């Protein structure tokens, strides 16, 4: 049992630091399972930038599906490890990466958003604001770059503002499908992640992804991003 517990935890750790608060340990089996996090605001709180219908479906259906399938894959992994089934272990890696990544990314995404009445869209001040100007030119330049890279991303994926902890420098990256930012480098910490899967915008914006990318900045939670930046830089 101890060996299986260690393997399960190492597998989770490889997916990044986003897996922590939601986890609860099933002591009888030593298996880590995950649950859907609550949103810190109502589904309609981000309107008109993001509709209540999209938020409810995105959270209750899409994110919940990632959590459900992630837990299922982890249980199957533990069983495969117990049986010494190396082939099954290898086959499960893609499901763990995809669904675990979906859980990580969406858990960050909900924190990256905030109603306008609670400060959503207000530009960052202090050290993060200075870093954006220094590393990326200006807030306007950052928005233009992330919007351009998000719109140009073929298929499904994410566009990120991240912190390179090794160089203490901000970076803009994209990841495919549900790959977390950490897959682009173990030293990268996500500050802002924007979901550019169709399920994040299509019901409201149809096929005009650039309009979604333009409007989402009105509800970006820069306070949260600043808190993460300060923590990681000190």
TrEMBL record:
| A single cellular component GO annotation | mitochondrial matrix
Q: Record keywords: NADP included? A: no
Ranges for the Manganese/iron superoxide dismutase C-terminal domain?
124-227
Checking InterPro entries in the record gives:
Fe/Mn_Superoxide_Dismutase, Mn/Fe_SOD, Mn/Fe_SOD_BS, Mn/Fe_SOD_C, Mn/Fe_SOD_N, Mn/Fe_SOD_N_sf, SOD_C_sf
Q: Which Pfam families match?
A: Sod_Fe_C, Sod_Fe_N
Residues that hold Mn(2+) according to the record: 58, 106, 195, 199
Which top class of enzyme applies to this chain?
oxidoreductase
* Chief place of localization: mitochondrion
Give the required cofactors. Mn(2+)
Function of the protein: Destroys superoxide anion radicals which are normally produced within the cells and which are toxic to biological systems.
What name does the UniProt record give this protein? Superoxide dismutase
This protein's species is: Rhodamnia argentea
Task: List the gene name.
Answer: LOC115748202
């Amino acid at each position: 049992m101890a060996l299986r517990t260690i393997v399960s935890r190492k597998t989770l750790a490889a997916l990044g630091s986003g897996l922590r608060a939601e986890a609860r340990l099933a002591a009888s089996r030593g298996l880590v399972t995950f649950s859907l996090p609550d949103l810190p605001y109502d589904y309609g709180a981000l309107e008109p930038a993001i509709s209540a219908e999209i938020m409810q479906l995105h959270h209750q259906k899409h994110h919940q599906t990632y959590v459900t399938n992630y837990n299922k894959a982890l249980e199957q992994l533990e069983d495969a490890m117990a049986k010494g089934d190396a082939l099954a272990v290898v086959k499960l890696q893609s499901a763990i990466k995809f669904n675990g990544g979906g859980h990580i990314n969406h858990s960050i995404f909900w924190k990256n958003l905030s109603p306008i009445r609670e400060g959503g869209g207000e530009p960052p001040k202090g050290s993060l604001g200075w870093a954006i100007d220094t590393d990326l030119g200006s807030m306007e330049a950052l928005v233009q770059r992330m919007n351009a890279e998000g719109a140009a991303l073929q298929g499904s994926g994410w566009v990120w503002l991240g912190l390179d902890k090794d160089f203490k420098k901000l970076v803009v990256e994209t990841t495919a499908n549900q790959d977390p930012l950490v897959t682009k480098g173990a030293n990268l910490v996500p500050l802002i992640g924007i979901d550019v899967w169709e399920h994040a915008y299509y019901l409201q914006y149809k096929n005009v992804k650039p309009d979604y990318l333009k409007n989402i900045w009105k509800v970006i939670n820069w306070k949260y991003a600043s808190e993460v930046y300060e923590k990681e830089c000190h």
